[in-house]
Amino acid sequence: MSTNTSEIFYKMFTQFIDTVRSTSIEVIRLLPDSFFLGVAILAGLSMCKSYGVLLLTMIEIMIVQNAFSKIIGGIMPSGAGPNTLNTVCQPGFSFPNNMRYSILEKIGTPSLFPSPTLFFLTGVMSYMIFAMQQFKREIVSLSGEIDTRVTVATVLSAIFVLIVLIFRSTYGCESFGSLIVSSILGTVLGGILVYQNMALFGKDGINILNIPILQTSLEAGKPLYVCDSS
Questions:
Q1: What are the C-alpha distances in Å from 73 to residues 46, 90, 133, 187, 221?
Q2: Looking at CB atoms within 10 Å, which of 79, 108, 110, 148 has the fewest?
Q3: Whether residue 175 has pLDDT greater than 90
Q4: Is the dihedral of CA 39, 212, 131, 165 positive or negative?
């Protein structure tokens, strides 16, 4: 009886592990497209300027990845992993008729370098962290610790990107070197896009925290004049 019970629990445990494993793989595979759709829905429902700008930034990151892949791929085609065409390496939504649709590969392009998935995710994570740093004065005024917030956001983002990097490297989607360089390029691009969007849309365009923006009288175009007592 005890042997049968042990076998039942063992089967239940292995089924649970298999379910968690297959679900995790699918979540990571769908991550870029589901991330984009989530922001698109949030921007549409909230009609929030900063989320709309974030959505445009995601599109710009994919366009830049497309351009990079054509330029670099034409010069030095490299970065292939042993299982590049494996299903787990293909982003996007799969259908019963074996069709697959990926926004990441429609606006961007399937490429070995830079990795569409890592380039996109690191670009977005970097953009959000750099954007948050621009609101140091506002966060401090609201009794927040900007250093703690930035540190926590950076650490969690790094862990998140590392998990995706290890996943794609383990399954042989791209070479390890291609994934590392793609992550660095995406991080740099995310920081650049913050300053681009500040110049184009103003500081409220990157206010992904949606907190009140503090302005001095001079910044608001209303300088204070002090009369001489004499």
A1: 39, 19, 34, 20, 49
A2: 148
A3: no
A4: negative
Contacts of 135 (CB under 8 A, 6+ apart): 146, 207, 209, 211, 213
Domain residue limits at 81: 31-206
Decide if 35 is inside a domain: yes
Structural tokens at position 113? 């370098």
**Number of folded domains that form the chain:** 1
pLDDT of residue 221: 55
User: Burial, 96: exposed, middle or buried (Cβ in 10 Å; 0-12, 13-18, 19+)?
Assistant: exposed
Q: What token pair was written down for 98? A: 């074996």
Which of 108-112, 115-119, 132-136, 144-148 has the highest average model confidence (pLDDT)? Answer: 115-119
**For the chain, what is the HEC assignment?**
CHHHHHHHHHHHHHHHHHHHHHHHHHHHHHHHHHHHHHHHHHHHHHCCHHHHHHHHHHHHHHHHHHHHHHHHHHHCCCCECCCCCCHHHCCCEECCCCCEECHHHHHCCCCCCCCHHHHHHHHHHHHHHHHHHCCHHHHHHCCCCHHHHHHHHHHHHHHHHHHHHHHHHHCCCECHHHHHHHHHHHHHHHHHHHHHHHHHHCHHHHCCCCCCCCCCCCCCCCCCCCCCCC
pTM: 0.78
Q: What is the pLDDT of residues 36-74, one digit of tens each?
A: 888 899 888 888 888 999 999 999 998 898 888 877 765
Is 147 part of a structural domain of the chain?
yes
Residue 10 is assigned to a structural domain of this protein: no
Beta bridge partners of 101: 93
Q: Does some domain include residue 110?
A: yes
